[in-house]
Amino acid sequence: MAVPLVVGIDGSEASLEAVDWAVDEARRQELPLHLLHAADTGHEAPDIVTAASERARKDDPAVRLSSEVLHQDAAHALVSTGRNAFALVLGSRGLGDLAGLLLGSVSLAVAAHADCPVIVIRGGAEHRHGRFGRVVVGVEDGEGSGTAVQFAFREAHLRRCRLVAVHAWSVPVGNPGPPGLSGYALRALDRAPAQVLADALRDSAQRYRDVVASSEVVEGPARQALLDAASDADLLVVGARRRHGHVGLQLGLVNHAVLHHAPCPVAVVPQI
User: Fold this and answer.
1) How many separate domains does the chain show?
2) pTM value?
3) Which Gene3D superfamilies did the record assign (predicted)?
């Protein structure tokens, strides 16, 4: 039995937009869709589940749909359910969040603790409904991006769209290196930025030969490079390393920035 794609619902417009996105993703991935609503005991809201179910079936009458109400904290319910899910899909803000927040507290908590990919649905309709034909993945030096790259290639393959891999780099402050070398040459004393990208993409590019992939090496802050690249993307994919000796993931400043400011849906993919 296929593990489901799980979408968190709370009656907010953001959660209904997450349902729309999740229906399309479930169709692409050929997965069942599971609607999850967390509510305090005595505060059940069956109309929330009904409205989300009707929305999903309107989007795709053939969707394999199930639903569940759990009487527990929303973040805990989602993280627990995510242990047996393909991915968790969440709106960027919920009903309980204060006006002006860029990202809801539940979405951020789930992204930092889930064992599966978490997709936070952001941006306008053109970004949410795949009108750009472009998936962007952030690649860091080291092992933190491997699973994210695989996820991004699969998305591009199923969407039949282009993939853009972005690697940002900068010379460490206080480490000028030998005189006369350019910044790129200094970075290459460790490993050339272009080589970082080539190494990260090699295996997935061999597996998904139909995907047209390009690479962008940017000198500067990674958060700005990814936000710029996401301006005309349908999905931004970033990796997250697991915290050694602690529960959860190392989201880091870059992932926090894109979760709060990206103009398109963001997938946070834990490194396996």
Assistant:
1) 2
2) 0.88
3) HUPs
